Q: What sequence folds into this?
């Protein structure tokens, strides 16, 4: 009831009911007209026809900036009257100088043919970062447009927002109604006992321990029936393709003018594999206790998966208690001391799903299972680094043209070589990101 009351607290922007509600609209390579279809509030909706140009848009431009510090999101009802899916975007500006990068943030989503759906743009992007999340969840029955960009909006000074498309192929039409500001959904109990989002259903969502056990058995039967393709060798190389020298180790070699990875047996190899195959995937509890509907009690054996974590590289919480729901669910599924059962299942999965490599940041105990793998390697030294002004780029980039770089690579990896010495399944070292 409390959530329903909160959701009912909205500030209408426009439902296009009369000329006064149309006064804030500005078209740029779009054409608009009121419509009697797609109506979700009042008696009229708005039809928007987007011309086939680079950035056709409809702007909502108030006479004075909106102060949205007390509001959590922009919501709007959208109907797709066409017979094809349509991708549209929404951009929010806090300054007339907004250029798609500065002074703005952008979200977007696809709406299916004939569908009417409520979409929301989360305004509290800074709030999501302070909670250790990339974005905030939407209300039940609402699809979030997301909010991307490095700019933190000044919510006290929102000068405009726009609905736009990127280079539509032909004229595209949307129906829009009931544009409003409303609170963000509360975050209490958004994570269930399996570490899943608690307020939405999707195919494959787990509801009970029995479901995990049933899936274990059905997957085991499916994987046991898999036979590896006959055209691949023991490393996953191309048996029916060209044969190069068998050196006993992986290498890169140019063949017929193209660079290839070559297996120890001399077959051509195209590496495909997922990263981060581990039993560990922690998320912080500290400062976010209210978000969890269940955590293992102090006397629960699963409490072993709650640990104190330090040294987080991003987010507002750099150390504190964290829970590993991934590990908890693996133990629930395979029993105590589950590593061997979990690892064996993963090895079968990789083969059956068409993968041939264990990617970076994976559990080193997986490396002895006769599948090519990479080792995480770090490079240090005094060679030059290249800097960037892009906030999301991370650390400085190594300068490969500095003569000291090659020397530092050899010196750095030499100390790590013992981990894979003599192992033909070691594909190489994965350096940086």
A:
């Amino acid at each position: 009831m409390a959530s329903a009351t909160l959701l009912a607290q909205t500030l209408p922007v426009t439902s296009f009911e009369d000329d006064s509600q149309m006064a804030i609209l500005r078209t740029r390579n779009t054409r608009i007209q009121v419509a009697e279809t797609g109506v979700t509030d009042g008696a009229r909706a708005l039809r928007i026809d987007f011309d086939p140009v680079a950035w056709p848009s409809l702007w909502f431009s108030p006479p004075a900036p909106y102060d949205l510090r007390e509001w959590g999101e922009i919501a709007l009802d959208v109907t797709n009257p066409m017979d094809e899916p349509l991708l549209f975007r929404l951009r929010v500006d806090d300054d007339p100088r907004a250029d798609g990068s500065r002074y703005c943030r952008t979200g977007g989503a696809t709406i299916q043919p004939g569908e009417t759906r409520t979409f929301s743009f989360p305004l509290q992007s800074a709030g999501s970062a302070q909670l250790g999340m990339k974005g905030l969840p939407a209300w039940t029955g609402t699809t979030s447009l997301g909010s991307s960009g490095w700019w933190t909006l000044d919510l006290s000074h929102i000068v405009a927002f726009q609905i736009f498309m990127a280079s539509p192929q032909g004229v595209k039409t949307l129906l829009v109604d009931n544009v409003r500001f409303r609170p963000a959904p509360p975050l209490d109990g958004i994570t269930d006992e399996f570490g899943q989002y608690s307020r939405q259903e999707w195919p494959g969502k787990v509801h009970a321990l029995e479901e995990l056990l049933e899936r274990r058995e059905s997957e085991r039967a499916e994987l046991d029936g898999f036979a590896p393709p006959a055209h691949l060798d023991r490393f996953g190389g191309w048996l029916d393709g060209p044969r190069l020298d068998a050196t006993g180790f992986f290498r890169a070699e140019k063949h017929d003018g193209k660079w290839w990875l070559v297996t120890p047996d001399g077959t051509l190899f195209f590496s495909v594999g997922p990263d981060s195959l581990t039993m560990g995937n922690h998320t912080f509890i500290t400062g976010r206790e209210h978000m969890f509907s269940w955590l293992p009690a102090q006397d629960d054996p699963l409490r072993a998966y709650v640990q104190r974590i330090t040294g987080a590289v991003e987010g507002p919480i750099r150390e504190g208690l964290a829970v590993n729901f991934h590990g908890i669910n693996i133990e629930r599924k395979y029993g105590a001391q589950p590593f061997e059962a979990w690892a064996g299942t993963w090895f079968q999965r990789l083969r059956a799903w068409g993968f041939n490599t264990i990617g970076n940041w994976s559990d080193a105990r997986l490396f002895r299972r006769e599948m090519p793998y990479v080792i995480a390697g770090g490079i240090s030294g005094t060679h030059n680094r290249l800097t960037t002004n892009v906030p999301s780029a991370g650390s400085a980039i190594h300068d490969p043209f500095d003569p000291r770089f090659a020397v530092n690579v050899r010196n750095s990896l030499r100390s790590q070589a013992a981990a894979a010495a003599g192992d033909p399944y070691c594909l190489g070292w994965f350096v940086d990101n």
